[in-house]
Amino acid sequence: MLLFASGFCALIYQTTWLREFRLIFGASTAATAAVLGIFMAGLGFGSIILGRRSEGKTHPLAFYARLEILIAITAALTPIMIWAARHLYIAFGGTEAMGLVPGTMVRLVLAALIIGISTFLMGGTLPAAVRAVVAREDDARRSIGLLYGANTLGAVAGAMAGTFYCFENFGNRATLWMAAALNIGVALLALYLSKSMPAVPASKPAREEESGNGPRVRPIFVLVAAGLVGFAFFLMEMVWYRMMSPILGSTTFCFGLVLAVALLGIGMGGVAYAGAKTQRPASWNFFAFTCAAEALFLALPYALGDRIAAVAMLLWPMGTLGFYGHVLAWGALCLIVVFPAAFMAGLQFPLLIALLGRGRERVGIETGAAYGWNTAGALLGSLAGGFGFMPMFSAPGVWKIATILLCTVGCAASFVGARQSRSWRVAIIPVVVVLFAVSLLWTTGPTAFWRHSQIGVGRLKNFPTSPNKMRDLIHEM
Known about the structure:
mainly alpha
């Protein structure tokens, strides 16, 4: 519950900062990317550095509590700092006066000064909490999945509460200060609970040992895999934002729903990993399967193509129920397109940490390292998608690139798993799933009917009554 509440607060902070910075820097992609980039960079550096710090703490939950107190204090001060940054940015004349490159640098520096400390501290909370609860005998590190899932589901609640209720009724600053007050409560409760918990002995230095029955895989391969799946997922998030806008309507609610459903899938995947009854150590074969399945779940909506847009037309009359009727329709479409792949991504993160080691030994360091590499990959994916890949290859092209990247990671992981188990049979299922996913990419995919029609604004309300009329409507676009 502590991790759920801290995830709730973190998303309130993030969405508030995005809204506030848009009032200073504007709503351009570059301005949004600057804020998101600093946010994710802070998380990545914090997870690596503070993850190592947490490993030496005999009372890691108390360390977690101190981090949460500092997060609440620094976050509560950001509205004052944003007010000062607004006056400074105006004094410089903005990007129009400074030019694109100097203006971008000023945005990055100001954003780093305002939210950098808070996000750095946020990066250390999961490693500290994980070290407090993972048992020595938990070889598969199932507890990490539960904490990661709870933290992400809290983020879902924060995104939905902020977007659909708090900002409208309380405003940006009051919402942020309420989240900071909740954050203080989380910290005080964690500090109280830490007093009744036994001391956790410091971990031993890393040992060179075999993983499974085969040759040991170097940790760098696990960390690179964490970075690659983070890159692919955030690349795909950029595609989802772009592709869902024409059929949901290009509003802040579309962005919020896609984010919420993606986080919901990740959170449920983490909880599902924790709920698995087996206590067998994590395997590369299972990781290969999750990559292949995620690729398949990305390829399926691509293959369905304009049928997704047709479903959007079919659900449009739900708007007669009012605004929340539209939200239900939008949510149903996001569940079809986004949720399955996000669920598999949620399985991957605790699985990657379990591939780095077993039980409690060095769990803080390894959680921080995996989180840092995954966040770095996610940051590169969002920047590559927004500034390079999308203009060069189009959204459907980037959709294919993300799918093929996951297929490649899945095949590589299945090869490693086969070497470790000394049996190539274990690679059959992931490879078959990968081949099926790749075959789906040869279909037509989304056409102009999805990408450029006026479904999202309600201009195409009459659902075609026959396949021929549907084809005629598509060809008219």
